[in-house]
Amino acid sequence: MSASAGRVPLPLRSLLVVWLLALGGCAGGQPQSEVVTLVFKYARILGRADPLPALLRSFEAAHPGTRVKGEALPWTSDDQHQFYVINLEGRSPGFDVMMLDCIWVPEFARAGWLTDLTTHLRPDELAPHFPSAVAAATYGGRVWALPWTMNVGLLYYRADLLAKHGLRPPETYEELVDQVRRIRIAERDPALDGYLWQGKQYEGLVVNVLEALWANGARLLAEDGTVFPEPARAADALRFLRGLIETGVSPAWTTAADEELSRRAFGDGHAIFLRNWPYAMELFETADSAVRGKVAVVSLPGRARGERGVGSTGGAHLGVSRRSRHPELAVALARHLASEPAQRAIALGAALSPTRQALYHDSELVRAHPEMPRLHAFALAGRPRPVTPYYLLISSTVQPEFSAALVGVKPPERAITDARARLSYFLGAIR
Amino acid sequence: MLLLAPTVLALAALTVYPGVWVLWLSLQHRIPIFEVSRFAGLDNYAFLAVDPRFLNAGRATAIFTVASVALEVVLGLTAALAIHAQRGGRRLALSFLLLAWAMPAVVTAKLFEWLYHPTAGLINVALGARSLNWLGDPGLALPAVVLADVWRTMPFVAILCYARLLAIPAELYEAAQVDGAGRLATLTRITLPMLGRILLVAVLFRTLDALRAFDIMFVLTGGGPAGMTETLTVYAYRALFQTLQLGFGSAVSVVVFLLVMAVAWAYLKFLRAGTTVAA
């Protein structure tokens, strides 16, 4: 030992002494002098200005000795999910607070990756949020995430065209179909499409079909775990959607349409109705928009002799990794980001809606987004997708079946039967 | 023998061990995040044998492979002959060819997504009133994906053929000319036979690549519509990485692996047979 130390050159030896002194200094120093770094994983927020850096800085100011690093997630939802799964299953504590698509919360909670927030929260802390958002954050009677941003399916319509033909916004799909026929006959514009929605084989298709199922009194998953508890009504809903395409009420390319494809076509003035999320509203009102001042929103239609229409809800939640080295601080950061001032800042700076209901009547926000009070009613009526740890498994199994029914290669009844058969094998392996 | 040990060990650690592990996983119901782990025997394989979605993925993979490789070989060969025949601008032509090949598959897929755009896409604008629902029609989606793949990988075949063309001695052509062979006779009697081996190699590489194709359909269609463009690898990805069914997903991977091995083996046999005849 001493022999090897004797061989260390002088400059290195002095460096060693300095390092040891520094170590001693740390050990004797105040714990507050150590800087704690929290990592927050989130997808970049699009909008006029990303409000997040300022929110992270204000958290640092309120918690001296804390540094928060915001790290970007991959772009697509699939990649984000895969990123989390690999890192959380691999037990790497590389991040503390994470932005989650609300459909992942029960899955991650079941896998034991999230901190149980129930005891960290005041009993009434989630009361100001939308009940459907709180339901999506709850699994097994415990709270696993904080609702952060809200999404709900809406029906956009061309107010100018409907007014010109003396029509009121449709309350049922049957009315909508009738209005499309009348307006197109009168307008004599072959380029004018009727009703645009999302029929590409992806998660958005499941959302659109769910809304059609609900309007027809059918469900994808019952409380007891039965898949398609009302198969005949579910098949009927699929048949109706297929009919929209067959009769030309919706264009043939609906089967390849995602949110942006349909949003752009409607924004170019080529359609009368559109099903989309609230983010589209702001884009229709930009200075160079072809439909500026001509678009209005209403809740999704129901079916004649059926239930009232409701939009599917979505959005992002904030979870805290169970492997965070600073759980108390991480929970504080999540609460800070989901607080009323933070949600107001996000709603002002980006085209994302808050989960706190009071903000929809906040004077500053209403001035910036006049449609917010109406949006509140739609979001409040919205319904979450099935809250289950197996959501992704169910969704990826039904996607090709729904798509097959929409493009007409499979009768709707067959699509439902096939989806049930596959799910019974996969879910049977879990239970 | 001792000198071989590092190689054997490395191969064992990197190939044999994971391979055996996947085989073992495929015999289980295994979903780690839900603490599911029990022996399933051949359940996963039995399910796959009658699973319409799996059989459909096999069909999509076969059609994609045969169509894209055939088109790539024909077009690649044509491009190589054309470049070889031209006097000037060979370098420029080669650079343009390489441009498509150098692009990442995801970028190519995004590019074609815009080309196939139903209302604003270049292709449909050119077609005018007869515009097609490229990515949303169950009969058109797979051809659309094949086209994008051919555009991207045809240069690979072209470059291989072009390199071989440069190596054919000029005396052969001169001799043919002296013997009075026309252009067609020169092509079928000299050029194509000389290209035979390299074409086989190109087809082998391209086939193995096409059998494992993933990114182009994943980005362009996500496997839709109606699963028409869902290949075996996309299907395996959904099971393994999206829904984390490691046991079931491994069974799919094992079948894909066996399939690729069988094709590679058949090709190699064919190649060797060709060598012995030539020798």
Task: Describe the structure in your own words.
The complex is a heterodimer of chains A (431) and B (279). Chain A has 431 residues and is α/β, with parallel strands linked by helices. Chain A is 46% helix and 14% strand. Chain A folds into 2 domains: 35-151 and 314-384, Periplasmic binding protein-like II (D-Maltodextrin-Binding Protein, domain 2, 3-Layer(aba) Sandwich); 154-310 and 390-430, Periplasmic binding protein-like II (D-Maltodextrin-Binding Protein, domain 2), CATH 3.40.190.10. Chain A has 18 helices and 15 strands. In chain A, strands 2-1-3-13-6 form a 5-stranded mixed β-sheet, with helices on both faces. In chain A, helix 17 (391-407) packs antiparallel against helix 18 (412-430). Chain A starts with a helix and ends with a helix. Chain B has 279 residues and is mainly α. Chain B has a domain at 63-230: MetI-like (MetI-like fold, Orthogonal Bundle). Chain B is 74% helix and 3% strand. Chain B is globular, with a radius of gyration of 23 Å. The A-B interface holds A 78, 81-82, 85, 89, 107, 110-111, 113, 199-202, 251-257, 261, 264-265, 268, 270, 389, 392-393, 396, 399-400, 403-404, 406-410, 418, 422, 425-426, 429-430 and B 29, 31-34, 36, 40, 47, 51-53, 117-120, 133-138, 221-227, 230, 238, 241-245, 247-248.
Task: Give me a quick take on this structure.
The complex is a heterodimer of chains A (431) and B (279). Chain A has 431 residues and is of the alpha/beta class. Chain A has two domains: 188 residues, Periplasmic binding protein-like II (D-Maltodextrin-Binding Protein, domain 2, 3-Layer(aba) Sandwich); 198 residues, Periplasmic binding protein-like II (D-Maltodextrin-Binding Protein, domain 2).
